[in-house]
Structure formats: C-alpha cells, structure tokens
Amino acid sequence: MTTSPPLKTWLPSWIFLTIVWGMSFYFIKISGSDLSPLQIAFGRVALGALTVLIILLIIKQKLPNTKKAWVRANIAGFLQHTAPFALIAYGETQITSVLAGIANAATPLWTALFSMAFIPKDRISRNEYLGVLTGFVGVLVLIGIWEGNGGENDLLGILAVVVATACYGGVVIYTRAKVTELGFSPSSFIGAQLSASAIQLLILCLIFTSVPTQISSSTWGAILFLGIFSTGLAFPLVYKIIRDVSSLAAATITYATPIVSTIAGVIFLSEGLHWYQPIGAALILVGVGLVQGIRLNWLWSRRGDLNP
C-alpha cells in the first residue's frame, strides 16, 4: 500500500497556483486600461513561453522536434491559451473580474461534458451526470439569467468567459487523446504549445489591433505577473502536483481560485456582488465536486489512494 505524500511536497505549489490564478482576473482587468484583449493575451503568452523556454534550458530539455507534435501543439495552444486568454480579457471589458473569476470555476464541468460526448468508453456515474446538471444550473444562477442583458451582467461578456471555460475543458480531452501518446515531457510540450500560441496571437494582433499609444507602469506590471507567474511558472507546477499527488489534487485548485479573485475584485477594484452570485458559485462548486468525486475527508485521508 502506498502512503500519502507529505503536504510539503505539493501544498506550497497548490497555494501558489491558487493565488496566481485567482489574482490573474484582477491583473487582466488592470491591463485592459491600455491594451486590447488580443494584446493582453499576446503579452501574457509571449512572456509565458519565454519563461518556460528558460526553464527548459535550465533542466536541459528540448522542444519537440516532429511535425506531428508541432501541429498538435498549435491546436492545443489555440484551445488552452489563444482563444480562452483573449476571450476572458474581452469578457472583463464587459463584466467584473469577480464574475469572470467565479464563472471560470465551471471548467471541470465542460471537461466532464466533453468526456461524455467524445470518450464513450468512459463510464459516467449518476453523480457525474448530476454534477454537470447542478453546475450548469449554477452558471445560469451566477449570471442572473432572468435579468437579461445590461449593467454589470453583460451577457456577451459572460458568454465570452463561458466559451473560454469550454476551451479549457476541451483541451483536456484533446490532450488526453492526441498529446499524451506523443511521449514528450509536459514541460517540453508546454513550451511548444505556448510558443505556437504566441505566434498565433502575434499574427492576430498585427491584423486586428494597432500599437497602443501608451502603456502605464501598472499595465506592465500586470502583464509581467500574468506572463511569468500565471502562465510560465503555473503550468509546469500543475504537472508537478499531478505527478506528486494526483490529478484530483490539481483539480481542487478550482475551489479556491474564485475566493481569491472575489477578494481581489472587491478589495482592490471595489466591485460588488449580487445576492445570487455566491449562490451560483456554490452550485457550480457542488457540481464540480460531484463530477470529480471529491470527498470531504480527502485532504486528511491517510489511506493513500488520492483518486476518487
């Protein structure tokens, strides 16, 4: 029987990811004062790619060297970085960072939904079906669907964030089906993925945006944080948690990031909360918990099996 790894092997990384991903919604909002959504996404991805390339140099690993790997890196990069980063940045021009951060918690629900649709050999439990249903009811409550379009809850902005979470969910299934079989190390493929995404976003920026007239120091700081910490350092750490503990441990970050993003939005941006948003967030997280089979005693379980 295996034993549970000590907290010190994974908890610092878990806390780091919770903070940097939760704070990313605040920094996206800040950078939107000077940059377009595509420019925010490009700056973030380009710096993230540079960070991972430096990591690869330090650990003496190389980027993938096959055409198939780079084709799939472009597809995965579009789904995991190009589309969602631009969509979330656009969404935050229409809605609060608090709402964007909470809505992002729906990502595992899309993963479950795509798994049901495209991997029929996976056995889907009754709890998982219930979790998907509960989660999407939570999304509808979160956005206050009965209020229609207007004010803080601009439906186009919310839709952009929801589509971004669908991209995140889709790339999990794509990676499982098309990337894992290539046999490259996670850091190596992430480097290729981010590099491909940076090129995609550069082309889009050249076509659809103009050079910003000014970039404030706060915007530079926000982009540096998003690129280095929320992207370049974050993705290798996710794989470290998966390797050291389990994919379930990494998935539980979903529970904590909305708390951080909400605190940051309320304190630093003076954003408010509608009465129904915490209720919607709770329903989403309950749905995510049902989908992932997370037990309340998971964190202190001593039985060694961290998988549901």
Give a description of the structure.
It is built from 12 helices and no strands. The chain has one domain (7-122, 151-273). α2 (37-58) runs antiparallel to α8. The relative contact order is 0.23. With 308 residues, it is mostly helical.
Keywords:
disordered C terminus, mainly alpha, 12 helices, 308 residues
Give a short synopsis of this structure.
The protein is about 70% helix and about 0% strand. The protein is mostly helical and about 300 residues long. It has one domain.
Q: Are there runs of 5+ residues with pLDDT below 50, and where?
A: 296-308
| Helicity range | over 70%
String of helices and strands: HHHHHHHHHHHH
The shape is globular
Class of secondary structure makeup? mainly alpha
Number of strands: 0
Query: How many strands, which pairing sense, and closed or not: the largest β-sheet?
Result: none
